[in-house]
Automatic annotation (TrEMBL):
The protein's role, per its UniProt record: Single strand-specific metallo-endoribonuclease involved in late-stage 70S ribosome quality control and in maturation of the 3' terminus of the 16S rRNA.
InterPro entries per UniProt: MetalPrtase_cat_dom_sf_prd, YbeY, YbeY_CS
GO molecular function: metalloendopeptidase activity; RNA endonuclease activity; zinc ion binding
Enzyme category, top tier: hydrolase
NCBIfam families (UniProt xref): rRNA maturation RNase YbeY
Organism: Agitococcus lubricus
Protein's name in the database: Endoribonuclease YbeY
Protein encoded by which gene: ybeY
Lineage: Bacteria, Pseudomonadati, Pseudomonadota, Gammaproteobacteria, Moraxellales
Length: 155
């Protein structure tokens, strides 16, 4: 796992936290291949720019996922193939955690897991896909000792 930070803030998770969250997401998704994930922590401005460029949305968002476009044949031959990049906007995460009355650590965990599941091909465009993805997120959070992130008492 690679971690890039645009901002330094005492409330940002440690690299070991991100590794644990990535590993749990892969476990619940039954993904068994050694992979690399790059996580980049950004500010509002960069998040808004990327969200506009790649999703056509003119606002900062909490998490963006960019799956690797490496051809399968090449990835399969690598010891640790790149799974993709996850961009997380620290100010949005912090504001959402406060607004939703969630612990900051659990919200970071949830959004990291959410991003990894997107890299693994899960989505929430239609109800069936959303239900499947949310169930995996809830399972991963429970394995980490966190509450269901989709309920009001998620702390």
């Amino acid at each position: 796992m690679s971690l890039q930070r645009v901002t330094t803030h005492k409330e940002l998770p440690k690299s070991a936290d991100f590794r644990a969250w990535i590993n749990v997401a892969m476990i619940v998704a039954n993904y068994q291949f050694a992979s690399e994930v790059l996580i980049r922590i950004v500010d509002d401005e960069e998040s808004q720019s990327l969200n506009g460029q790649y999703r056509g949305k003119d606002y900062a968002t909490n998490v963006l996922s960019f799956p690797s476009e490496l051809p399968h044949e090449i990835a399969a031959a690598m010891t640790r193939a790149p799974l993709g990049d996850i961009i997380i906007c620290a100010p949005v995460v912090m504001a959402e955690a406060k607004e939703q009355e969630k612990s900051l650590q659990s919200h970071w965990a949830h959004l990291t897991i959410h991003g990894v599941l997107h890299l693994l091909g899960y989505d929430h465009i239609d109800d069936d896909e959303a239900e499947q993805m949310e169930a995996l997120e809830v399972q991963a959070m429970a394995l980490l000792g966190y509450s269901n992130p989709y309920t009001c008492d998620a702390a």
